[in-house]
Amino acid sequence: MNHTLVMEFVLVSFNWSLVLLKLHTLLFTLIYLVALMENSAIILLTLLDQRLHTPMYFFLRHLSFLDLCLISATLPKSILNSLTLKDSISFLGCAVQLFVVILMDGSEIGILTAMSCDRYVAICRPLHYETIMSRGVCIQLLVISWVSGGALGILYSAGTFSLTFCGSNKIHQFFCDVPALLKLTCSNEHMTINISVTIGVCYAFACLICIVVSYVYIFSTVLKIPSRQSQSKAFSTCLPHLLVVSTFLLTGAFAYLKPSSDVPSILDILVSVFYSVIPPTLNPVIYCLRNKDIKLALSKVLGNVRRNGLMKR
């Protein structure tokens, strides 16, 4: 049987309805701009304010950078396609996009795990915090996160694009993702990608175990604190992190582990939004909405900008 090898892919589009096309473009543009401003603000604030040069904000700064890269790997291309009414993405472009998404997702899981360890040490072993969470240890945890994400990115992209694509080239997704691409392959054997997914699941599960164990100790310690105000403060810093981790891991697991179906579903797109678009947009809000240090740093920067503006006048 003759097959036509795929040289480019076509991403899902909404141009069959002008209203949906405009809504998609407007919504994705707004989300991207908000995520861009939020994460850039956190990166700048944690760099400029000396009081934010602590392990917690060190990890938060790198989480914001990962979120910025993750959302920049998917939304701009989708927005551009909507504006130009072109839905194609080259074979190489698709491979690079997939690699970057997996790299950022894998690294983000590692950073979230490091953040849970940081909270554990801060709450359960406060007297040894500076010794345990030294700058060297923080950098090591960061490197491990990036290396893990990079290894997963190479495994997934190499495993996926070592398969043969033929016939339909329409990806039912707004970016190149493994589950959507596997539906287009005519290769019978998926051994390489199956191994990659298994390694990815084991990595995510190991991180989840570390996070759960950390929070078991954290909550048991917090509940022993006699002061209600101190309990409330501890819970306010831990529960948002737990919410972020749960949403990120559960939606990612659902997308990659649910049974494959040949019938396109809007649910697939919604799930991918929850692990590739929502976290970069909501993480800054969840972590910084009630954070007094971030608010103080922001008001300080804005005050300096206002004063400089008045002086120039």
**Percent range for helical residues?**
over 70%
Any idea how many domains?
A: 1
CATH class: Mainly Alpha
- Report strand %: under 5%
CATH topology: Rhopdopsin 7-helix transmembrane proteins
- Count up the helices: 12
End-to-end gap: 76 Å
Task: Outline the structure in words.
- The chain is mainly α and 313 residues long.
- It has one domain: Rhopdopsin 7-helix transmembrane proteins (Up-down Bundle), CATH 1.20.1070.10.
- It is built from twelve helices and three strands.
- Strands 2-1-3 form a three-stranded mixed sheet.
- Helix 2 (55-72) runs antiparallel to helix 11 (278-288) and helix 8 packs antiparallel against helix 9.
- It is globular.
- The relative contact order is 0.14.
- The mean pLDDT is 84.
- Residues 38-287 form the G-protein coupled receptors family 1 profile domain.
- Putative odorant or sperm cell receptor.
- It is a multi-pass membrane protein.
- The chain crosses the membrane at residues 26-47, 59-76, 88-115, 136-158, 193-218, 239-257, 269-289.
